[in-house]
Amino acid sequence: MHLSKRITTLTGGGSDGWDVFNRARAMIAAGTAVTELTIGEHDIRTAAPILQDMHASAMGGHTGYASVPGTAALRDTVARRIAARTGVPTTRDNVMITPGGQAALFAAHAAVCDPGDTALYLDPYYATYPGTIRGVSALPRAVRTRAEDAFQPRAGDIAEHAPGARSLLINSPNNPTGVVYSRATLEGIARVCADHDLWLISDEVYDTQVWEGEHISPRALPGMAERTLVVGSMSKSHAMTGSRCGWIVGPAEVVAHLINLATHTTYGVPGFIQDASRDALARGPAFEEEIAAPFRRRRALARRLLAGQNAVRLVPAQGAMYLMLDIRATGLSGDGFANALLDAHHIAVMPGESFGQAAAGHIRVAMTIEDTAFQSALRTVIEFAQRHAKAA
């Protein structure tokens, strides 16, 4: 008996990028205390009023099959939010609700890529991107960004890889780098998409976590609404990671086909979760800022700690809940640094190489533990790097 190549080659035959994380979790399971600065999981839990709304909806009977494209109330709420934030007219016909952002990424690529098509994505990248593309039997092709450009993509580099490709996946604010793409960067990306007839898939799950600059959805740029699919989620903006509620926004014709896909795959999102998500979105920007505030605060703490030394350099942390740290002065790779740090101090960070080769010699630190513990762990990371930099 044989398994499909689609499933057996999902990670490309190599590591899936989670080796250090898995090592840390194994240490914890064995009874070792580990400070985890690895995944984008809020240290606060989903707010009590959202859980109360979820409970009330479930107890009220919304536990059966929900509408596959999403409830009309949630689709309308998402559409109003998108229209208000971007200025692009958006209705429920442009919105499909999905079981989280990851399912939306899969569905978006399924919508625009046939088997064997080339799908572009930017390196560094969130660890699931190439596997998601392989999952729809497309061929992932990375376009490297550069540390010297603060990982802002160059339109020319994308254009070099664009001939024959079908789609381009971008993510701003960016995981893992924390970079927010500038208007000039996005306008360059839009030109390449138009010139090479690419679909643009824009992962915007961190759009409420912007510390410098502004978040610009490329769907709002001239001529881009008809060729852009936007992925959004409740996970990061409302600390609802486990609720698995996200969406795709795009042309109505695409959404109609995506509804057919959902009918044959996920069959929608539980109604009581959709009701709680609708009520959470109705709480507005002030509530979203409250959820984002710990990361804004920890970013400021980190910048003060990192000032005045050269062993660790901070990539401009303009958004999202992560810091990308350049540790090349230590002479170690990101993998080597992360594993040695875990062994010596029981602090777990993600190696830059988990997110592609463009981030080699970097580590990603998630700002997802309480302030005092975060400062203590970051001081240890800096001191560890300084010792290795002196020896290098």
UniProtKB/TrEMBL annotation:
Keywords: Aminotransferase, Pyridoxal phosphate, Transferase. Its cofactor is pyridoxal 5'-phosphate. The keyword Transferase applies. It is an enzyme of class 2 (transferase). Its EC number is 2.6.1.1. This is aspartate transaminase. It holds the Pfam family Aminotran_1_2. GO terms for biological process: amino acid metabolic process. GO terms for molecular function: L-aspartate:2-oxoglutarate aminotransferase activity; pyridoxal phosphate binding. It catalyses: L-aspartate + 2-oxoglutarate = oxaloacetate + L-glutamate. It comes from Sulfitobacter sabulilitoris. Residues 51-375 form the Aminotransferase class I/classII large domain. Belongs to the class-I pyridoxal-phosphate-dependent aminotransferase family.
